[in-house]
Fold this sequence. Notes:
Two copies of one chain form a homodimer.
Chain A: H1 13-18, E1 32-38, E2 44-50, H2 52-61, E3 65-68, E4 73-76, E5 85-92, E6 98-105, E7 122-127, E8 130-135
Parallel strand pairs in A: 1-6
Antiparallel strand pairs in A: 1-2, 3-4, 5-6, 7-8
Amino acid sequence: MAPPVFSAPSTDRSEQEEGSVLRPRFDANGLITAVATDAETGELLMVAHMNAEALERTIATGYAHYWSRSRRALWKKGESSGALQHVREMRVDCDQDAVWLRVECKRRDDTCHTGRTSCFYRIIQAGGGALATVIDPRPTG
Amino acid sequence: MAPPVFSAPSTDRSEQEEGSVLRPRFDANGLITAVATDAETGELLMVAHMNAEALERTIATGYAHYWSRSRRALWKKGESSGALQHVREMRVDCDQDAVWLRVECKRRDDTCHTGRTSCFYRIIQAGGGALATVIDPRPTG
């Protein structure tokens, strides 16, 4: 497969921030940050990364693809678990180093590999001289 | 100032993912990803990064602090613009390399330095053989 082709980031800040051309600013590792929220509920589901191929595959197929930093592999979200993410809308931020995916979850309860709707199930609590987290008591469905 | 002290990430996956101790997993550059949403509207406002000091300052003061990768400096969000972010709730994700801040914005219209409520004001559109972005026509207020 030929490498995906995106326009390069512009050195013109106005073009990068206000222009109509998608110019993803991949970092030194070739990655941008991707944030997925549930298109129905607005809930923040997960934060992951995309390389150029993952971004290209996501746009081309309408299903979220990420780059797994731990496995060093392209990863179609839900390919094995069934928790596919159908992309309803995709946005890019001002300097184009992050994208926001509003997704329809095919298996909502399995978005996080721990078996939860969202990866953000722990609230950070400060107090008593120690930093702790607490599992969110809200239903995850 | 003494360096902030957080517990180290655990090599025990269960402890890292289900334990009650905050164990932020900073990357090779000493950063974690931070996502801020509006505590009132749920809107995704911005994606940024935190080093240990920014995380410690955020928890200690209740106001969002980030690490500016471009300026290589600690950055109290809104310190110059007035667009402070008061943290209502802070969460950490499963492997503890990302945090989610639900914030109360002191100047909502100035969250993005381009003068918008959110940094994600452009929708990615594919079609006609080219990838483009379009400015969201919705009101930003």
